[in-house]
Amino acid sequence: PKITYNFLFKFLVIGSAGTGKSCLLHQFIENKFKQDSNHTIGVEFGSRVVNVGGKTVKLQIWDTAGQERFRSVTRSYYRGAAGALLVYDITSRETYNALTNWLTDARTLASPNIVIILCGNKKDLDADREVTFLEASRFAQENELMFLETSALTGENVEEAFLKCARTILNKIESGELDPERMGSGIQYGDASLRQLRQPRGSAAQTKQQCNC
Amino acid sequence: MQFSIRRPTLPSTETHPEERLYRRLDVSTWLRHFNPSGQVEEEYKLRKAIFFGGIDPAIRGEVWPFLLRYYSYDSTSEEREALRLQKRTAYQDIQQRRLSMSPEEHSEFWRKVQFTVDKDVVRTDRSNHFFRGENNPNVEIMRRILLNYAVFNPDMGYCQGMSDLVAPLLTEVQDESDTFWCFVGLMENTIFISSPRDEDMERQLMYLRELLRLMLPRFHQHLTFLGEDGLQLLFCHRWILLCFKREFPDAEALRILCTGASVLPPE
């Protein structure tokens, strides 16, 4: 049966190669760690309907290759994303150093308002840690990001990361800071009735065909 | 999740008239294409046989160096042996260049290439018996080939997806230097297999969009309706980049790769 939802959010998972982006997505959707995971080529998609603050939200999550080179992919990938998980690997300083570039891309190519949560993944590999919790939290603070250390292996903080990001977006919608009606907001209403309720009277009711993906 | 072939046989009205004329190329038919000095007499005939009939898995490693234009069809057996030796030296030179980088060059190479290669080779085809298990030496060979390729062709460097293409070549061709040169051929000379250059990818996507428009007009219309992103066909990029390698089970995927390689690029 088709699950109805109040909102649909477009989410991205970004970060360097091998930081565990696909595994985070897999853990979030399947509640399992993906053994023998291949590196992502092109874009893969996942979705899950979650309950956040009394609202039903469908997260449509785009997962891309850590090393993506194609213009068409980059363009479409970032366009109209409402939220993003920015992932680095706590055991690899190189992936942490790359964060600034990823952040710039997200804010310029998606939207300056995109809600981003920084995820220090592979928390379970604490013995090999190269990036401390403290310095990453400072980075997050300076760049106005939320921050969690996650483990796609154990599942620790994985759901929290996605939900935290979704909750923040929802709050911003409710406070009026984010306008779902704006083109490229990355937010869609889940069904027509809700949409009409919120739509100011007299505005041209241009209903976009809803795709069930 | 993988694709499967829903209709392995088609009625003759839907197939190319020559399709049924060819059986899979086996050792004895393969050998009949050569003259006594080891030259392929009629290249076009051979490629057509492979295009329609496929290759017996047992001789893939023999045939691919021709399809990928490492060996030219009119070379003699002796010339090929000489070429292999010469190319082996050339390969070693490339490797030597990589190993003798200055510390600055090396750190740039590590950041741009090696960092990603190291992560990818250990997650490429590990369920294939050829690459299975901890410390499998074949994984290290695959790694060297990719690193050396990035030295050989610094403009291309390493692009994710290359390991997926090197892996089956190495499995069949086995020899490190030969595999390297076959891979060079694959990147340069094939039409169905997209090189990871932006403009090649755009061209392939344009072909696909055109095919969709002609063959599946309603679907094409739907994509158009979705706006700019629909026709970017993001869900097909991997099909094109890896020549369906991850979409089909190995046997079918290799057959597709082979068919693609049997078609020459336009001059």
CATH-derived architecture of the largest domain in chain B: Orthogonal Bundle
Total number of beta strands of chain B = 0
Determine Rg of chain A (CA atoms, Å): 17 Å
Average pLDDT rating of chain B: 92
Task: Give the ordered list of helices and strands of chain A.
Answer: EHEEHEHHEHEHEH
The largest sheet of chain B, given as strand count, sense and whether it forms a barrel, is: none
The Cα radius of gyration of chain B reads 20 Å
What percent of residues of chain A are in strands? Answer: 15-25%
Q: Per DSSP, what share of the residues of chain B sits in E-state strands of 2 or more residues?
A: under 5%
Structural class by sheet pairing and helices of chain A: alpha/beta
Q: What portion of residues of chain A is helical? A: 25-40%
| CA distance, first residue to last residue of chain A | 14 Å
Number of domains of chain B: 3
SSE run of chain B: HHHHHHHHHHHH
Separation, N- and C-terminal Cα atoms of chain B: 37 Å
Shape of chain B: globular
CATH topology of the largest domain in chain B: Helicase, Ruva Protein, domain 3
Number of strands of chain A: 7
Q: Please give the CATH class of the largest domain in chain B.
A: Mainly Alpha
Helicity range of the residues of chain B? 55-70%
Describe the structure.
The complex is a heterodimer of chains A (213) and B (267). With 213 residues, chain A is of the alpha/beta class. Helix content of chain A is 32%, strand content 23%. Chain A has helices at 21-30, 71-78, 93-97, 99-110, 133-142, 158-174, 192-198; strands spanning 7-15, 43-52, 55-64, 83-89, 115-121, 146-149, 187-189. The model of chain A is unreliable at 196-210 (pLDDT under 50). Chain B folds into three domains: 20-67, no CATH class; 77-189, Helicase, Ruva Protein, domain 3; 199-238, no CATH class. In chain B, 57% of the residues lie in helices and 0% in strands. Chain B has helices at 27-32, 43-53, 60-67, 77-99, 103-121, 137-152, 162-173, 176-189, 198-215, 217-225, 237-241, 250-261. In chain B, 33% of the residues are buried. At the A-B interface, helix 2 of A face helix 5, helix 9 and helix 11 of B.
